[in-house]
Each structure stands twice: as C-alpha cells, then as structure tokens.
Write a structure and sequence with these properties.
2 domains, six-stranded parallel β-sheet, 17 helices, 44% helix, globular, binds adenosine-5'-diphosphate, binds 6-O-phosphono-alpha-D-glucopyranose
C-alpha cells in the first residue's frame, strides 16, 4: 500500500468518471465548489485523495493525476440512498442551510451514514504515512475525524466544512447531534467559512458536551480542538488565463450577438439546481419587473444556467419541475418570437464556456438564500477583463463578507431584489469600475492558494501543542 504525507478525504473524487473508460483520467471539475477549489492546489502536490467516483458499485483502481493519487471508494445502491441522498443531502444539507427546505429525519439513514464514514476513515488510515496530515472535507464525513483518531492517533487531522454551520437552535433538532458534534471535534483544527460558524460550534459544544473554550479553541476532556474561519476561494490565475484565451473572447462575442446585440442588458445566473440558490425568488423578481414594465424583453434578457444536481432526491426533482414551469410561463407571457425573456440551460459547461458567459454578463445575479461561500461570485469577478459588469450578491452567501463592493441584497425581500437589479442595471461605468477594481484586488490577495496555505499552516501548529492554543 502506497502511503502519502498529505491525504484529502472528501465524498467525491474530483474526477470525471465517465471520461475514464479508455483508461485516460481527467479532472472532473464537477459543478460544485469543493472539488474545483481543491483541484487547484492538489494538482502539483504529492497527496492521496480518498473519495467516491460518482458511480454505484465496486470502485475500480484509477491512475494517478500528476502527483495526486486517487483512492476510489465504492458506494452500494443502499449506501447511496441512506448515506448520500439520505442523511447527507436530505437531513444535513437542508438543516445546515437554515432549513430553507424541511430536513428529513429518517432513522434508517443513520446506520448507513455511520458505516460509510467508518469505511472512509479506514481507507484514510491505510493511505496515511506515519505522522501524515489528513484533511477531511464537508458534511458528508463529519464522523471521520473522531473515527480516524481512534485508528491512527499519530496523524494530524483537519476538518473543513464548506457549508454553513447552523445556529445551535437548528442543530439541536438533529436526533444524532451529540455523535455528529463529537465526530467533528475529533479533528485538531476545525475550519469554517465564517467566524459565526466557529462561534455556533463553541456554544453548542458547551451546551451538549460541557466543554470550555471560545471561538478559537474548544477544550474537551483530554484535548484542545482549535477552530477558525478560513473563507475558501478560487484559482484566480487559472480563471484569468482562461479568460485571456482568444476562444473565450470569440465565444463571448458570439453569445452577445446571439442574445440580441450590444444594446441588450444581459442578466446571468449560474447555479447547481439547488433550492438553497434562490432561483425561484430570482425568477419572481424578474417576472414582476417584466409585468410592471420596468424592464422589457427588447432591451433585457436573462440567462439562467442551472446544472442538474442530486436528481434522485425528491426536493430537487420538485424544484426542477417548478423552475421549468415558471420559465415556460415567463417566456410564454413576455417573450417575443426569436426573443425569449429567459434562456434556461440545464446542462454542464466546461470552464472556458463558463468564462465566456461571465464575460458576456452585464449583471451577474447571485442570490442564494444561504450559501457557505459561493464560488460563482468569485469566478465572475476573476473572469472580467475590463472594469465593467455588476455583481448582485446575496447577503446570505459567505462571499458577501468579502465582496463588499457588490450590490448586496436580501433575496427573501423580492421588492428589494427588484430594486437592486434595477440599480445594478443603471449603475454608471465609473461606479462599476470602482467596485470591480476593489473586488478584483481583494480576490488577487485571497485566492485558493492563500486559503490552503492559511489552513494547513494553522493545522500544522497542532504538532507543537504549546503553540496550538491561540
Ligand atoms: P456549490 O458548491 O454549492 O455548487 P459554488 O458557487 O461554490 O456552489 O460552486 C459551484 C461551482 O460549480 C463553481 O465552480 C461553478 O463554476 C461550477 N458550476 C456551476 N454551474 C456549472 C455548470 N453548468 N457547468 C459546470 N460547472 C458549473
Ligand atoms: C457543495 C458541497 C460539496 C459538493 C458539491 C456538489 O459544494 O459543499 O461537498 O461536492 O456541493 O454536490 P454533489 O452532491 O454533486 O457532490
């Protein structure tokens, strides 16, 4: 068994399984923040990534990607239902996102969640060399830190939650709250997107486990678990160099032409098709602007990219049906021949085509009801080659704390959302340039490498316990 000094453990491998039958192995760049973020830093680091390849059944060995080894995990149909679609995505995901959809508590799913977490911990224990650093990712694997510590007390364990950590009163609803909290606190450093999450966890731990400590460290019976905020970012350099390709400029010109030419304001949204992303609220706002005659299809068009996600989960299926009905209604009511009000694209795009879309937008509309970070907002800023373009951004995305020069909005307030969209569409070039420059400068300093560097450096402090307490 080959072992590594750095092991990443995440539910998904960052690999496009469908591109692999001929043995060739390509990065997946799956629609989802986690894989994209980590891909950027691991490509050139000797490490092993433990994760699921996206297909049900026995996992087959996969070739390395550059210096990165892949340790594929298999998931059975029952595990997919109980662990992934069930406990992870029907219980934890909605609960952690302010319960914008009612979380489902199904007692049958817990066993599956626990046993899959155990298998991931065992696999990580196998591939970690003595004294290695093991970095566990996200809500799917919240029990892994503690399970791994039992198996391998010699390794340094990090845990990073890509999604929000809810306020204690919501977390307290979880039937398995104590196990989940203890599982996560098995890590040496627990990282979050926002400081508020670390605060929530400290309060919860005091209440449920009787621990002491503050927002930066929790003292359990025998250990100190450090916590902190490390806002995740994107590979700014990659997005910039993509954006500089002639293909992207040509594609953007073509898109602009296809969407109706220079005089049209293009509103763009790019999301996984997920109820946390606020797609329905956004459609309501746009449709009311059309109804009230405050925007017209002859001078405005919306592009909604909504890539399919978690399609077997009931709440996602229902959402897709509702969105498609609403898009049809809006186009039926307000569109003209050859001039729809909304272009709806329920398909994946490759990175260059996404960059071209970002460059074509006049207003990027990112309005999740709750989001750990939202990397699309950051990608939009990085993809712009000039200082034009407005970003309308939900206050409830982690990114809002960093991109303060966006047009910030509460997406639950549809009237406020309508006003903000109009304001962004009418902003002067000077105003837009000031905002874009500030956001771009911020992102340049806070890219994905800065994120990983900050987290791993902090995690490393736990190797010398006296320094570990901040
Ligand atoms: P989440 O992680 O909840 O999906 P983020 O905005 O943080 O939300 O990350 C989404 C990622 O998925 C971004 O990197 C974005 O470029 C990518 N993505 C979104 N839509 C598509 C699409 N249609 N095709 C390919 N990638 C997409
Ligand atoms: C979010 C989660 C990730 C997840 C991604 C895509 O970004 O934080 O852990 O990988 O969504 O979702 P999926 O269910 O397709 O992996």
């Amino acid at each position: 068994m080959r072992q590594s000094s750095l092991v990443v453990v995440a539910n998904r491998l960052p690999l496009d399984d469908s591109a692999a039958p001929d043995g060739a192995c390509e990065w997946r760049r799956s629609p989802g923040g986690l894989a994209g973020a980590l891909h950027a830093i691991l490509e050139q680091t000797p490490a092993t990534w433990v994760g699921w390849g996206g297909r049900v059944g026995e996992a087959r060995p996969l070739p390395d990607i550059g210096t990165l080894r892949l340790r594929p995990m298999s998931l059975s149909e029952a595990e997919l239902r109980g662990y992934y679609e069930g406990f992870a995505n029907s219980t934890l995901w909605p609960l952690y996102h302010d319960a914008v959809v009612q979380p489902v508590f199904d007692r049958g799913w817990w066993e599956s969640y626990r046993s899959v977490n155990r298998r991931f911990a065992e696999a990580a224990a196998e591939v970690a060399e003595p004294g290695a650093t093991v970095w566990v990712q996200d809500y799917h694997l919240q029990l892994v830190p503690q399970l791994l510590r039992e198996l391998r007390p010699d390794v340094l364990i990090g845990f990073f939650l890509h999604v929000p950590f809810p306020p204690p009163e919501l977390f307290m609803q979880l039937p398995r709250r104590v196990e989940l909290l203890r599982g996560m606190l098995g890590a040496d450093l627990v990282g979050f997107q926002r400081p508020q999450a670390a605060h929530n966890v400290a309060q919860l731990a005091a209440k449920l486990l009787g621990t002491h400590g503050a927002d930066t460290a929790i003292v359990t019976d025998d250990r100190v678990v450090r916590t902190g905020a490390f806002p995740v970012s994107i590979d700014v350099a990659e997005m910039r160099s993509l954006s500089a390709r002639p293909y992207v400029a040509n594609q953007s010109r073509q898109l602009r032409h296809d969407l109706g030419g220079a005089h049209k304001k293009v509103l763009l949204s790019v999301d996984r098709l997920d109820y946390t992303k606020g797609i329905e609220h956004r459609l309501t706002a746009y449709s009311e602007l059309l109804r009230d005659g405050r925007v017209q299809v002859r001078d405005t068009v919306m592009v909604q990219v909504a890539v399919p996600s978690r399609e077997r989960v009931e709440s996602y299926r229902g959402l897709r049906d509702r969105i498609e009905r609403e898009v049809g209604r809006i186009n039926g009511e307000y569109g003209r021949v050859g001039e729809p009000a909304i272009h709806y694209l329920n398909q994946p795009f490759d990175r260059a085509d996404l960059a071209a879309l970002y460059q074509t937008a006049d207003v990027m509309v990112v309005t999740p009801l709750r989001d750990g970070m939202n990397l699309v907002a950051k990608e939009f800023v990085a993809a712009r080659r000039d200082d034009s373009g407005a970003l309308v951004l939900s206050e409830f995305a982690g990114a809002a704390a960093e991109l303060e020069d966006a047009f910030l909005v509460n997406p639950h307030d549809v009237d406020g959302l309508k006003e903000t969209l109009l304001q962004a569409m009418a902003a002067t070039p000077d105003d837009l340039a000031t905002r874009m420059k500030a956001m771009r400068a911020y992102l340049t300093r806070h890219d994905i490498r800065a994120w990983a560097g900050a987290y791993l450096t902090d995690l490393d402090l736990a190797r010398s316990p006296s320094l570990g307490l901040r």
